[in-house]
Amino acid sequence: MREMRRSIRILGVPMDLGQSRRGVDMGPSAIRYAGLQARLERLGYSVEDGGNIAVPVPEEVRLTGPGGMRYLEAVAEVCERVFEATREAVVRGRFPIILGGDHSIAMGTIAGVVAAAGPVGVLWIDAHGDFNTPETSPSGNIHGMPLAHLVGNGHPRLIQIGGPTPTLRPEQVVLIGVRSLDPGERQALAGSGMLVFTMREIDELGIATVVRQALTRLKAWPRLHVSLDLDVLDPQVAPGVGTPVPGGLTYREAHLMMELLADSGRVGSVDVVEINPILDDRNRTAELAVELLASLLGQQIL
Question: Considering the entire predicted model, what is its pTM?
Answer without folding.
Answer: 0.96
